[in-house]
Design goal:
With 554 residues, this protein is an alpha/beta fold. It is 47% helix and 14% strand.
Length: 554
């Protein structure tokens, strides 16, 4: 019989996830926390979602396996709704895997285990029915295999016997509702001794004369004209539960020890009958909970984005060796989720095309401050992560090659305790990247090497970019070093390699008259345009020619 423990809706067969070495840095630089929160059903699933996003797989079959499962859920709203309900049932079942605090109470342990087995049977049958009812609408290998696994399990003799015997076993434990106690009295009518007489399937109830006259409060049970005292009231508590062996019980300890033995005697036949099911483990089913929750959270996020009128698409997966990324109308999905509680301003969420390939694999990205360079750089990292996780990406169209890792090098605040200073720390982090990166990696740099003079920064940055070309990796270097971008062709000529260096620019519309520029947030391949940025700087500090001219006249 197939084992759920070996079955996953994320990793088919025996594939194993690959963990990124720099996951903490990547998580912080790309602000993955916002994305993770947005695609998690609730906080309890955030760690699982994080692990999936950062466990890069370069196996194209794994990525496509997930894509097809996601498409089945997106195309079948009824299946989606039913899985939401079932997730709650599996969560309840998971609660039975905790260790009870009342280990020595055999009766309660048996009742606990019986309830677990009943929920296990009900949940397996329900999940199989959900998938079976979906019929041919399920196209993915993953959900089809899960349906077959469930059918195989239900068809086993052990499962069928359990399913048929549980209805007989449960009443033997659950139906005990009351016990008759015989009490011996002395000549002064004081309780002298007591014994247990019988067990009943109905509770004792107290029906007052007033309730009888009014016809109210009638309950099924053994009627008593004497008051029925609640153990919780005796103990002065609201949620008090009597422990049969509790020495501090408000009732007679010896009597309750006898009661415990009676309960154990009652449970022993059930225990013997249950021994054949000791290998039935609900953990096998609970292991699917996180996978189901992951997909349900992703679908929720996709629908949220689409309802706002933005595109989400399943990317084509290209061969890893081609080292390509072709995207039409990409936007930063974190920018959307940042505004999710506001009216989405589509003028802020600007779409850009991206093309990594033979025409260019190393982008030197220049542009004005707040011109969208960081947003664009992080958007590419987020697209790669989502696409490689088998999910839809924020774009109209996308085709990507898997990467073996993403490395980020974003500017950090200077810390006084750094012995080598900020530049030394930057150099150390860059060196660490080169020790790990390959030609199949993606490197994202944002204002790197800006902690020294312009001439030194240019010299260092030039060597780093040339090393990227030699390595053959894909990279984006967002920088204010316009001379670096202008020198792209010289670096291509001087350095061997097939990762072409190109200049890409964050576009602006400038005005010579008032020294103002308008950021468009559109990023295209083009030579750097430092003139517009100089105009902006001059205007910002009040030293453009027109501003100085007015000052002189004044």
């Amino acid at each position: 019989m197939s084992d759920f423990a070996a079955f996953s809706l994320l990793f088919p067969g025996n594939t194993v996830p690959e963990k990124l070495n720099n996951s903490d840095t990547l998580y912080a630089d790309l602000n993955l926390r916002r994305l993770v929160r947005s695609i998690s059903l609730n906080p309890q699933y955030e760690n699982h979602v994080t692990n999936i996003l950062l466990a890069f797989t370069t196996d194209v079959s794994v990525i496509r396996y997930r894509q097809k499962i996601l498409n089945d859920l997106l195309n079948n709203p009824q299946l989606l709704e039913q899985l939401h309900v079932l997730l709650g049932e599996i969560t309840t079942l998971e609660g039975y895997l905790t260790t009870p605090q009342w280990k020595e109470n055999v009766l309660r342990q048996v009742a606990w285990r019986l309830s677990e087995l009943q929920r296990y049977v009900d949940t397996v049958v329900a999940l199989h029915k959900i998938l079976n009812d979906a019929g041919d609408t399920i196209q993915s290998e993953g959900l089809q295999q899960l349906r077959n696994h469930l059918q195989e399990r239900i068809s086993t003799g052990t499962f069928q016997k359990l399913q048929s015997e549980l209805p007989d076993l449960l009443p033997k434990i659950r139906d005990i509702r009351s016990i008759t106690i015989g009490i011996n009295l002395d000549l002064d009518m004081r309780p002298l001794s007591a014994t247990l007489l019988d067990t009943h399937n109905e509770p004792f109830i107290n029906e007052t004369m007033l309730l009888r006259l009014l016809g109210m409060g009638k309950k099924e049970g053994i009627k008593s004209d004497s008051p029925v005292h609640d153990a919780r009231a005796v103990a002065g508590l609201h949620d008090f539960q009597v422990e049969l062996n509790d020495r501090n019980s408000p009732f007679m300890p010896k009597l309750f020890r006898d009661l415990s033995e009676l309960m154990d005697d009652t449970s022993r036949p059930v225990v013997r009958a249950m021994k054949k099911y000791v290998q039935v483990n609900s953990q096998l089913l609970v292991s699917l909970k996180m996978d189901i929750a992951f997909y349900l959270g992703v679908v929720k996020a996709i629908q949220q984005v689409k309802d706002a009128g933005l595109e989400m698409t399943q990317p084509d997966i290209l061969p890893m060796e081609s080292r390509e990324m072709r995207i039409e109308e990409m936007y930063n999905i974190n920018l959307f989720f940042q505004q999710v509680n506001k009216t989405v301003d589509k003028t802020v969420i600007v779409a850009n095309d991206v093309k990594f390939g033979d025409e260019g694999r190393i982008f030197i990205l220049t542009g004005p401050n707040q011109g969208g360079k960081t947003t664009y750089t992080t958007a590419i990292g987020l697209v790669q992560i989502l696409g490689q996780a088998g999910l839809h990406v924020p774009a109209k169209y996308a085709a990507i090659s898997p990467v073996d890792a993403i490395y980020t090098h974003f500017a950090k605040e200077e810390r006084p305790n750094l012995e080598a200073g900020r530049l030394g720390e930057e150099a150390r982090r860059l060196n660490s990247i080169f020790e790990q990166a390959t030609r199949h990696s993606l490197v994202l740099l944002n204002e790197s090497l800006a902690s020294t003079s312009a001439s030194e920064s240019l010299f260092l940055a030039r060597d780093v970019v040339r090393a990227f070309r030699l390595l053959g990796t894909r990279a984006i270097f967002a920088t204010h070093l316009h001379d670096l971008a202008a020198d792209s062709e010289n670096m291509n000529t001087e350095t061997e390699g097939d990762s072409r260096i190109i200049s890409v620019v964050s576009q602006v519309q400038s005005s010579e008259e008032n020294g103002k520029i308008k950021r468009t947030y559109k990023i295209i391949p083009a030579p750097p345009d430092s003139k517009s940025y100089a105009i902006e700087l001059a205007a910002r500090f009040g030293i453009s020619f027109e501003q100085l001219k007015k000052t002189i006249k004044r």
